[in-house]
Every structure is written in structure tokens, then in C-alpha cells.
Amino acid sequence: MSLSIRLRALAADPDFRAGARDMASPSLGLAAWGLVTGVTMVKSGLSLPLAMGMSLLVFAGSAQLTALPLIASGAPLWVLLATAFCVNLRFVIFSAQWRHYIGHLRLRERLLHGYFSADLNFVYFVRRYPDPVPAAGQRRYFWGGVAVNWPAWQLTSFTGILLADRIPTHWGIGFAGVLALLGLSCSLLAERMLWWVALTAAIVSIATYSLPLKLNILCAIVAAGAVGWWLDTRRGKA
User: Are residues 87 and 153 part of one domain?
Assistant: First the structure.
């Protein structure tokens, strides 16, 4: 079977189409966030090739936007790495859940899933398949979401990179990106414990805002993680 025929069959698959349809709903907010990230990379001093390479290789908007001010301010490498690591710790949690669905696949396939897996992929996938076991249609649903999520991010990020000097700051795209991330964060707060974790992160981030090198973000992540661990431990003992 030729590649074109296989692609057409995949596009017609109901699970693939469901994944694409679910991911299309937040695509406007995702586009705003990608545009913000692209503009920010260039305005932080990255060259066009470096910015494009970062967009393709990192594929994590929150980590990019956290790292860029640190790069621009000349922060030590350990601060940059520690901050990016803490921001991306959520993917360790995601991976523990993904393992139940794709742990049986070959390493190459798992790595490919890992690269394309983002916050929205995880949220919508788990909502559709709450039972953590492999099932028919799961991979097609996942790739349907990727077919919308990845191009939407890369196209808008590259647009921001190429047009960074022509996009005026008074357009407020930064605020649109914040709203997009805020909507995503709220969609993840499905339990009371998570609301306490989010509140802790917000309070600590504001309280330590005056710290240099954006260390308030690192403090907020550590405090929120500690509160989440403590609440989870209490729930386990109850």
C-alpha cells in the first residue's frame, strides 16, 4: 500500500478525525501562544536559525518562555537548566500515565510519541480514554491530535520568528498567550488537591517576584510540588 493511500485511509479514520476535531477547539489559543513564543525568541536576541531550531527541537512553550529571559540576562547555566527542568517536571508525571497506554510499543515509537506529546494531547487523550490500558483506536486518536497541534504551534511560532520586528507590542499578543496558558491550566484542575497546588504556586510566585533571574518561578514550582506531595501523602493515609 502506497504512502498516499495510507495517509488518506488514516485521515478518513473516525478515531483520527476525533483526535483532530478535539484538538481544533483550543487551536486559537495555541496559535496565540505560539506567536508569542516566536516573537519572544527573536526579541530575546536569538538569531533566526537558533530560534527556528529551538522551536522544532524543544517544542515546549512554557520551557522556552521561561528559559529566554534567563538567556537574555546571562543567567548561569545551572539556573537555566534547573528552571527548565522544574518547568518540565509535569512531563514526568504525564509519562508515568502514558506508560500504561504505549509502554508495549518499541522504543523508537515511544520516543516519537514522547516528542509529539504536549499538555493538550495528554488532557484530551486521558479524557477520551480514562482507563489506563491499551485499546483500539488510541494511537489513531493521538496522531489525529498531533496533526493539528504540532503544525499549529510550529506555523505560528515560525510566523512570530519571521515577523518579530513587524509585530507591535501594543497588539497585546502576550496577554492572549497568557490567557491561552491560563485556560489550559484551569482545564487540568480536576480535583480539589490540584486547586490547592495551583493556589500555592500563584502565591509563592507573587511573593518572590522581586527575586533576580526569574527565580520566583523556581520557588513556585518547588513549593507547589511540596504541597502536592504532602496532600497526596495525606490522602493515601486516609
Answer: yes
Select from 118, 100, 126 the least CA-distant residue to 30: 118
Helix, strand, coil % in the chain, rounded to nearest 5: 80, 0, 20
Q: pLDDT of 218-229, one tens digit each? A: 788 889 888 988
Kindly state whether residues 20 and 79 are assigned to the same domain: yes
Residue span of the structural domain in which 218 resides:
191-238
Domain count along the chain = 2
pTM: 0.77
Are residue 165 and residue 74 in the same domain, yes or no? Answer: yes
> 14: Cβ–Cβ under 8 A, 6 or more apart, which residues?
137
104 HSE (CA, 13 A, CB side)? 7
